[in-house]
Design goal:
3-oxoacyl-[acyl-carrier-protein] reductase FabG; globular; Rossmann fold; 7-stranded parallel beta sheet; NAD(P)-bd_dom_sf; alpha/beta; 7 helices; SDR_fam; binds nicotinamide-adenine-dinucleotide
C-alpha cells in the first residue's frame, strides 16, 4: 500500500473530489482527517473510510479562519501524532459576472479558496519540517489558467493565486523534504459543477471527469511515486486546455 501508516488531512473531504481523495488515500493505508463546514457530508465520508479499516476524524473547521485551522491541526496531532499529507481541497464557486461581483463575494472567495490553503499550509509546516518529509497538494483549476470559461473572476483569480502560492511554498519547503504541487482539474462531475453548461464538445476525451480521476492524480503526488515533483501544476482536464 502506497500510503501505509500515513496521516492525511483533506480539507472539504465531504465533497466530491475531497471524498474521492479520502477514499483513494484510505485504500492505500492512510488515516484521514476531514476539516469541513458540511458535517453531514463529512460524516458520510468518514463512515466509508472506517468501513475500509482506516481511522477518520471529522473536525468542524472553516479553512478561512486561522484559529479554526490551528485548532484543527492541533486536534490532528493530539489524535494521530503526525501529519504526512495536506490536501487543500475545500473551495467555493460562483458564476457571477465581474460587473455584478460584490466586495463581499470577492472577499469570501479569496478567504476560502486562497487564504485557506495559506493558513492550512502554514499550520502544518512546522510538523512536516520536523518530520523532514511532507506532501502538500493544492486544488487549482483550469479557471485559474484561462480566466474562467464559466467561472467568476474572483473564483478564477483565487485559483490562479493558489497555483502561484504552490510555487512559493515549494521553494521554501523543498530543503525540508516537503513537496508542494497543484492539480488543475477541468470539469469534474461534482456538486460544484452541477450547473455548468455542457462543455463536452470542447474536451478531447469527450466527457467530464469523475471525481475519482482527479483523486488518482492527487494520490500520485501524495505518494512516493511523485517524490521528485515539486512546484508543479498537473493538468487533469481531459485535454480541454493544453499548455
Ligand atoms: N468540480 C470541478 O469541476 C472542479 C474544477 C476545478 C477545480 N475544482 C476544485 O476542486 C476542489 C473540490 O471541489 P468539488 O468539485 O469537490 O466541490 P464540492 O462543492 O463537491 O466540495 C467542496 C467541499 O468544500 C467544503 N467547504 C467549502 N467551504 C469550506 C470552508 N470554508 N471550510 C471547510 N470546508 C469548506 C464544502 O462543504 C464541500 O464539501 C475545490 O477547490 C474546487 O474549486 C473543482
Amino acid at each position: 500500500m502506497r500510503l501505509d501508516g500515513q496521516v492525511a488531512i483533506v480539507t472539504g473531504g465531504g465533497g466530491g473530489i475531497g471524498k474521492a481523495t479520502c477514499l483513494a488515500f484510505a485504500k492505500e493505508g492512510a488515516d484521514i482527517v476531514i476539516p469541513e463546514v458540511n458535517l453531514a457530508n463529512a460524516e458520510a465520508a468518514s463512515a466509508e473510510i472506517t468501513a475500509l479499516g482506516r481511522q477518520c476524524r471529522v473536525i468542524e473547521t472553516d479553512v478561512a479562519d486561522g484559529n479554526s485551522v490551528r485548532q484543527m491541526v492541533q486536534e490532528t496531532l493530539d489524535t494521530f501524532g503526525r501529519i504526512d499529507i495536506l490536501v487543500n481541497n475545500a473551495g467555493i464557486f460562483s458564476y457571477t459576472r465581474i460587473d455584478a461581483c460584490t466586495e463581499a463575494e470577492w472577499d469570501r472567495m479569496m478567504a476560502v479558496n486562497l487564504k485557506g490553503p495559506f493558513l492550512c499550509s502554514q499550520a502544518v509546516m512546522e510538523t512536516m519540517k520536523a518530520q523532514r518529509s511532507g506532501r502538500i497538494i493544492n486544488l487549482g483549476s483550469l479557471a485559474g489558467q484561462v480566466g474562467g470559461l464559466v467561472a467568476s473572476a474572483p473564483y478564477s483569480a483565487s485559483k490562479a493565486g493558489v497555483m502561484c502560492l504552490t510555487k512559493s511554498l515549494a521553494r521554501v519547503l523543498g530543503e525540508y523534504g516537503i513537496t508542494v504541487n497543484s492539480i488543475a482539474p477541468g470539469v469534474a462531475a461534482t456538486e460544484m459543477a452541477k450547473n455548468h453548461p455542457d462543455m463536452t464538445d470542447q474536451i478531447p476525451l469527450g466527457r467530464v471527469a469523475d471525481a475519482s480521476e482527479i483523486a488518482s492524480a492527487i494520490l500520485f503526488l501524495a505518494s512516493e511515486d511523485g517524490r521528485y515533483v515539486t512546484g508543479a501544476t498537473l493538468d487533469v482536464n481531459g485535454g480541454i486546455r493544453m499548455a
